[in-house]
Design brief:
This protein is mainly beta. It has a single domain (6-406), classed as 7 Propeller (Methylamine Dehydrogenase, Chain H), CATH 2.130.10. 0% of the residues lie in helices and 43% in strands. The chain contains no helices and 34 strands. It has strands spanning 38-39, 54-59, 69-71, 74-81, 86-93, 99-107, 125-126, 130-137, 140-147, 152-160, 172-174, 177-181, 189-194, 200-205, 217-221, 224-230, 234-238, 245-250, 261-263, 268-272, 280-283, 289-290, 296-300, 311-313, 316-320, 325-329, 336-341, 350-352, 355-359, 364-368, 376-381, 391-393, 396-400, 404-408. The strands form 8 sheets. Strands 1-28-29-30-31 form a 5-stranded mixed sheet, with no helix packed on it. A 5-stranded mixed sheet has the order 15-16-17-18-22, with no helix packed on it. A hairpin with a 2-residue loop joins β28 (350-352) and β29.
């Protein structure tokens, strides 16, 4: 896999991670430093045997679908303590698994939610100086910032939120901003908050009132910085500097859960919708305004991802739908190479050394070699159910199960 262009590093607005595949990377937000599940490291364990291959494992208090993120010696995730109505941010020592601190972000009545959601589904994000997390406080989104010592810096409520399915928002970072998508059944919006104090830097209203849960993608794409969001009856590219709209594709349907991603190899943005129709779209990201009829390269209404985000490795695009159907497509054309019935997947896959690691809801990790035919080269049992996506940093893999946080592999020292 070729190295990535400088513009991709705008994703987190910092230069603290390296693009040299020999060196380690931080995993600062959901789906990693490029927002697409790719790992550039070469010294990552390829056998994920949680029962025998763990460096450490630690019990995680509470319940939540929040995935882990890693920065340096610190690992963060979110959880909920339903018996106390608490939403909590956790910090672990990535070397030992010891809980460094546990901070209650808010205490509020539990919201209505879908049975497959949790009260702590959003993944935190970090820039090496702070960690940022979002929860639902009854009818408002609550976003908080903490220092690495566990001290709260600020907590703000940037807007209302209404959904019968509950809440899940993973903040993304750009320069001095924390960006949150508030697509919901009421007043929908995208808002950028100041990292320094949580004040609103910009706020862009959305045109419809529909739910989406996918994490925005912020990258240097087609010669400009774009923030791409799927949901609210559209796939839309914003300028993360000021929230202005660059281009949009109408549809594919009302609600989206899977996160969008960009393939530099194919020069396409891929987005999937969830309800009431499921569509997989490939879009050229170099347009302006309404590009529905000019920049949509292909659409597939059968093999669309649902919660599990899609991924490209080499010449192949892999998706998993809501019933567990795994599909392999040609990213350039949408042609289907194969389909394979699997179990349900909520966790999103990662790519390591040309192989794709998919984790199903029961904790079965399937290692897929992308190609014109289905090829599962290995399978490992986590030993717990999970909806959480892996994090990879400095030669180590971090997996969060229903009750346990696992660390696989030895840390690579420079």
């Amino acid at each position: 896999m070729k190295l990535f262009a400088f513009g991709w590093m705008l994703f987190v607005g910092v230069m603290a991670f390296s693009l040299n595949p020999v060196q380690g990377e931080n995993w600062p937000i959901f789906r990693g430093p490029r927002g697409d599940g790719t790992c550039l490291e070469k010294n990552v364990p390829m056998e994920w045997k949680a029962a025998t291959g763990c460096l450490w494992k630690t019990a995680v208090p509470g319940i939540g679908h929040s995935s882990p993120v890693v920065w340096g010696d610190y690992l963060f995730t979110a959880t909920a303590l339903p018996e106390n109505q608490e939403r909590v941010l956790l910090s672990f020592d990535r070397n030992t698994g010891k809980i460094l601190w546990q901070q209650t972000v808010l205490r509020a009545p539990l919201e209505q939610k879908h049975e497959e959601n949790s009260f702590a589904s959003g993944t935190p994000s970090s820039d090496g100086e702070g960690v940022y997390v979002a929860f639902l406080d009854q009818k408002e989104i609550a976003v908080a910032a903490y220092g690495f010592s566990g001290k709260r810096r600020w907590l703000v409520r940037p807007g209302p939120y209404s959904s019968p399915h509950g809440f899940s928002c993973s903040p993304v970072l750009f320069k001095d901003k924390v960006i949150v998508v508030g697509d919901n059944r009421g007043e929908s919006y995208v808002v950028a908050l100041s990292k320094a104090d949580g004040t609103t830097v910009w706020r862009t209203p959305r045109e419809s009132s529909d739910i989406s849960y996918g994490t925005p993608l912020v990258r240097g794409i087609a010669g400009r910085t774009q923030m791409i969001v799927a949901g609210n009856k559209s796939v839309t590219a914003f300028d993360p500097n000021d929230g202005s709209r660059i281009w949009f594709v109408k549809g594919p349907s009302d609600e989206c859960v899977a996160s969008t991603f960009y393939s530099e190899r194919f020069g396409l943005v891929f987005a999937a919708s969830s309800y009431p129709q499921r569509n997989m779209l490939a879009i050229k990201p170099d347009g302006m305004g309404d590009v529905t009829t000019t920049h949509m390269v292909w659409k597939n209404m059968k093999n669309a991802s649902y919660v599990c985000s899609p991924i490209v490795e080499g010449d192949y695009l892999l998706t998993v739908d809501g019933e567990g159907l795994m599909s392999c497509l040609n990213p350039a054309t949408g042609k289907v190479f194969w389909e394979e019935k699997m179990e349900k997947h909520h966790a999103s896959p990662v790519s390591i050394n040309g192989l794709l690691f998919f984790t199903d809801d029961n904790g079965l990790i399937s290692v897929i070699k992308p190609g014109p035919r289905f090829n599962r080269v290995a399978a490992y049992e986590l030993g717990e159910k999970t909806y959480c996506s892996p994090a990879i940093s400095d030669g180590q893999v971090f997996l969060r199960g229903e009750k346990t946080l696992f660390c696989l592999g030895q840390r690579v020292k420079e």
